[in-house]
Task: inverse folding
């Protein structure tokens, strides 16, 4: 039943033992593409044999012209100079990077060695995971820590290729590298038990197949997906709601950061909820099941049923998924998506309002999307703040963007104001915010830093 988890990367490493460029695949329409572990097409590949998978991978999928035309028109206005290079990244899936988020509930030492030997380094300042914590939780995980035993690679792989002789080398040196990527992560961020490894090149680590009775050791994702979780800053004992939760990447990240008293993962779509449950089951130990629940409500009405119940709420809203939409399977599908796009801001605003009702006075809501579109980002936050006087946006620029600016390219200005790179202090059309930077920050994919798109905004409910 977990055959679909056998990733293209695992297969490539097993068979070819050399890095490969992977052809783009389309993913779900209004959801967040967080990486191979979050790719619904992998689910559809259940039962596909390796040769079938290879054939599909080799077939390049062209981008969808109506979507590209629409993006060109909108994003050249909204992003200015950043758009041509963001466009180039979005149109070159071979340049896309993936982060490897380790699972602190599983034994990860061997994986860490392998990652480091391949040139991966940690994105965040590390707070060591207490062995006691690991032992407590990893009741069904393998306690052997040696590289090769816990590794996703074939058994003789490590001995054939000792760490300094790994066959996986960067494919090309043409990508612009973030400066001093290999140096220590910024110390301005608090130390975290959330461990994510990234590589300066688009090198893919294999997804991990299901191992009966054992927790998965890592989850592959777009590293920008971690930023909303960092902004949420969950601490032990808090009650947390993940309002739009499937497939569960951010819920897993929350559980890497802290042990909340409750994490309610809400997902109304039955198919996606099933996927969410499987993700949680594959990464979290049974001892946590009473703290992590799955619910099936319409997020728009969640706040009415559980008013003021939560310390923290994440709204990782359904949105136009820029990466995925560019690879719509046909022009008609692309056009249909663009038509439906107009309805998204109203849904997103409803979800955000509902979240602000579900959070307790003094608590915080993080709103995020994986689109560059300002009408689903700044405009949604702005409209909700306009009729929610008890909600106050918090500035994430110093807290998140500045310390992580060597890994991600951030934009913070509203499109109506100045250029994206230059913050403006002018008010937004008479809106409640006097500083557009405070409405949120946007990760814009750029060559060598292909993470994103990801918009995030943090709002505190005052009373
Ligand atoms: C961007 S995805 C969430 C990704 C997820 N947070 C993660 O990190 O893996 C948005 C999710 O919102 C769900 N959704 C759509 N409409 C919703 C609604 N009215 N209430 C709650 N969730 C909804 C979608 O089914 C989808 O799974």
Result:
């Amino acid at each position: 039943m977990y055959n679909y988890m056998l990733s293209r990367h695992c297969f490539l490493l097993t068979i070819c033992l050399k890095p490969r460029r992977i052809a783009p695949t389309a993913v779900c329409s209004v959801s967040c593409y967080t990486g191979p572990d979050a790719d619904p097409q992998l689910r559809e590949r259940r039962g596909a044999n390796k040769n079938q998978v290879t054939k599909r991978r080799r077939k390049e999928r062209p981008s969808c012209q109506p979507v590209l035309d629409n993006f060109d028109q909108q994003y050249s206005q909204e992003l200015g100079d950043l758009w041509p290079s963001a466009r180039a990244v979005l149109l070159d899936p071979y340049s896309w990077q993936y982060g490897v988020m380790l699972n602190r509930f599983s034994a990860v030492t061997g994986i860490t060695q392998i990652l480091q030997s391949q040139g991966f380094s940690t994105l965040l300042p590390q707070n060591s995971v207490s062995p006691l914590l690991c032992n407590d939780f990893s009741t069904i995980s393998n306690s052997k820590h040696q590289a090769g035993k816990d590794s996703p690679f074939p058994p003789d792989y490590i001995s054939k290729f000792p760490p300094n002789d790994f066959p996986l080398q960067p494919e090309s040196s043409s990508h612009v590298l973030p400066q001093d990527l290999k140096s220590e992560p910024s110390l301005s961020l608090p130390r975290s038990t959330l461990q994510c490894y990234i590589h300066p090149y688009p090198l893919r680590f294999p997804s991990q197949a299901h191992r009966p009775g054992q927790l998965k050791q890592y989850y592959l994702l777009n590293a920008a997906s971690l930023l909303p979780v960092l902004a949420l800053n969950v601490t032990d004992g808090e009650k947390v709601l993940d309002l739009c939760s499937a497939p569960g990447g951010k819920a897993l990240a929350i559980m890497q950061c802290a042990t909340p008293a409750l994490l309610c993962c809400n997902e109304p779509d039955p198919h996606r909820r099933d996927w969410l449950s499987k993700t949680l089951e594959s990464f979290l130990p049974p001892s946590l099941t009473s703290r992590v629940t799955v619910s099936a409500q319409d997020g728009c009405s969640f706040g009415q049923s559980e008013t003021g119940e939560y310390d923290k709420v994440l709204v990782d809203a359904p949105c136009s998924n820029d990466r995925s939409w560019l690879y719509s399977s046909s022009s008609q599908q692309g056009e249909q998506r663009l038509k439906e796009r107009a309805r998204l801001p109203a849904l997103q605003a409803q979800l955000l309002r509902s979240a602000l009702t579900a959070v307790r006075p003094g608590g915080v809501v993080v709103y995020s999307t994986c689109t560059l579109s300002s009408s689903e980002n700044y405009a949604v936050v702005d409209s909700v703040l306009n009729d929610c006087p008890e909600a106050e946006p918090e500035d994430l620029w110093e807290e998140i963007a500045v310390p992580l600016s060597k890994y991600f390219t951030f934009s913070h200005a509203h499109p109506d104001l100045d250029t994206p790179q230059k913050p403006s202090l002018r008010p937004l059309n008479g809106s409640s915010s006097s500083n557009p930077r405070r409405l949120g920050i946007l990760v814009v994919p750029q060559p060598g830093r292909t993470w994103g798109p990801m918009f995030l905004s943090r709002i505190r409910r005052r009373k």
